[in-house]
Amino acid sequence: MKIWQADFYRRPQQDASEQVLWDLLICDRDRSFQYEANCPQSEVNSSWVASQLQLAATVEGLPNVIQVFRPQSLGLIEQAGRSLGINVEPTRRTFALKQWLQAKGYPTVVDKPPPAPLPENLWGEEWRFAAMSAGNLVEAFAELPIPILVMPEFLLPINLGLASTVSVPGVVIYGGKQSMRLARWLQQARPVALNYVAGAPDGLVLEAGLVDRWIVATFEDAEVAAAAKAYEQRKQQSRGLHFLLVQPDDSGLTYSGFWLLQAE
C-alpha cells in the first residue's frame, strides 16, 4: 500500500511582494519521495490541490492513502482525495512530514481545545491501572476474540526495541452493559494516548483524533494519585507505550476493545 503524508497550510511569512501564499508539502513515510508547491491565497481550493496531487503522481502514480495531521488542511485534502479516489486518513502520526516541516521552520504544533467530559451514557462502572510485561502483551490479547483490537505494527513492543521484561502500563475500564458502546465510541474517536494530569481534582485525559481531548476519569484519592504517578513513570520506561482495555467486568471471559497507545 502506497501512503503519502500531506500538509496544505498558510505560509508563516509573506513573500517579497507581501502576498499570502499557501504551501502544499507531500512526502512518503521515509521522505524518499517529496513534492512541494505553493499558491496564492486567492487560488486556494480543492481543485488546485487535486491538480497538484496528480502532478506529484506523474512518476510513481497516486497513493492509496494520504495521511493528514493538521485540522485546517483536512477538509481541502479530503475533497481533493475524494475526487481522485484516494482515501484520506486523519492522524497525528505523520512523523516524516512533521520532521520536514520543522526543518523548514514551519509550525507543527496544533492548538487543542480543553478536555471535555465523556458523554454520560458511555461512563464505565469502574476502572483501574494495570501493567503487563512487554513480552506477554501482544500474545495475551492478539489471539482473543476481541471485537475491536488495535495493535499498529510500529507500536508492537518488539518494534520499539523493548526488552520482554519491561512493564507496559495501561488502564482497564469495566464498562458493564455499556462496554461495547464505549468501545465503539472510542474506535470512532481514534485514541492516541491516555495521560495522567495532576490538578484539583486529578484526572485521566484521553488524547484522540487530531486535537480531541476527553476526560476519562477524575479522582482526589491519594492512593489513586500515587498509582497514576507510577503509571506515568512506567510509560517513561516503556518508551511511552501503554494500553487501554475495555471489558464488561473483571471475569476475564469477554472483552470489548483493546488499543496500544503512545503519545505522538
From TrEMBL:
Residues 108-262 form the RNA-binding protein Tab2/Atab2 C-terminal domain. Signal peptide: none annotated. One of its GO terms (molecular function) is RNA binding. Residues 3-104 form the RNA-binding protein Tab2-like N-terminal domain. Keywords: Membrane, Transmembrane, Transmembrane helix. The chain crosses the membrane at residues 154-174. It comes from the Bacteria. This is DUF1092 domain-containing protein. It comes from Chlorogloeopsis fritschii PCC 6912. The lineage of its organism: Bacteria, Bacillati, Cyanobacteriota, Cyanophyceae, Nostocales.
